[in-house]
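Re-run with default settings, no changes from the original entry. Doing this only to confirm the output is reproducible before filing.
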Amino acid sequence: MVVYQALLMAMIFVPAARSPLVLVPAFLLSFLNAVVIHNHLHRGVFHSHRLNMIWRGVLSFGALYPASANVPSHNLVHHHFGDDGQPDWADPQHVRFRWNLLNLIHFPNIAGPNTFAGVARWAATTRQASFGRQYRTETVVAFGLTGGLLLYDFWPVLCFLVLPQFYGARCILRINLIQHDRTDTTSEWNHSRNFVGRAFNWIMCNNGYHTIHHNRAGLHWSELAEAHRREVAPRIDPSLDEPSMIVYLLRRYVLHFGRPPQRDVAAAERVQPPAKLAPRAARRAEAEQAAAVEQAAAAERATAVEQAEQAEQAMVG
């Protein structure tokens, strides 16, 4: 992500860097920035809570949205689909064009507003006050820095900063459609499409192994490939293991006009012995508890810092 941010700054402050040779890698790395947000919000990169919060701010600037939005939208809602009776904010069924390519193009325009409206509702009702503070801080960092740079040099910043930021944010929303359309989100194992190419997963930190990530969200990304081979592959329809995302996108959205019919992809898991997997309701409760614990720890640290500052001021006074 340091390289991504460096490319963005180079294109803003060094006119000679404003070329496709720099812009194209920036677009690609912006998507990787969104992937890192996803991984970081599941398992923080650092042992230090403060460093993890700072890193969220850095990633938020790269994506032009507050990274903490992933806690309610992804960890608590998307990972459990419609199990609580409420629709997933990024459900593939939000788009229904007959021409399937239009579904892929338009999906972020539906999922994005749905997601941030849902996050706003969750933030207004949650008891986790520290979430609101962190969310607002990341919003100020992302939009404040970008707004300041737009005032500095509007058109170059719009073309060489804002467009890459938007690209990564919109692409990560499209992944929800790509990985879940025409799967069975009510099943235990056939709810996700996996992309198992080694090169793709090396670049994308094993995010192609999506089924096992949903079922065992606490696993570190480096463990997903082996867990997929051991637990997922025997229980899913072969069509949900794709060797290449590029080939899949061409076949599904370019070479074919219509959306394919829904199939009973979950039949594969019904003939296999059950795995030792906690019920989805229990996994949802565990995710909610983990989010609450993290926010409580953040609140305690903020209170301790405030008390220390007050004590220092009292001593000075």
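Residues 280-316 form the longest helix (37 residues). The two ends are 44 Å apart (CA to CA).
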